[in-house]
Amino acid sequence: MNKGINNYLVWIIVIFLEWFILTIGKSAHLWIFVIIPIIAALIYTEYNSKPAKKRRNLR
Predict the structure, then answer these.
(1) pTM higher than the cut 0.70
(2) Where would you find the membrane-spanning parts of this chain (predicted)?
């Protein structure tokens, strides 16, 4: 799967999780549960979008 499409899918899942948490909880005290998926998605998309290291062939 393309990295760009993969990143969009991750963010769509995160937005759905945020909506689900906030509709079930209906409380402002759930901010920590809202922040955790956002941080996880940021880390995943940044790590996933790094270019592969090129290995030098020393012969």
Answers:
(1) no
(2) 7-24, 30-47
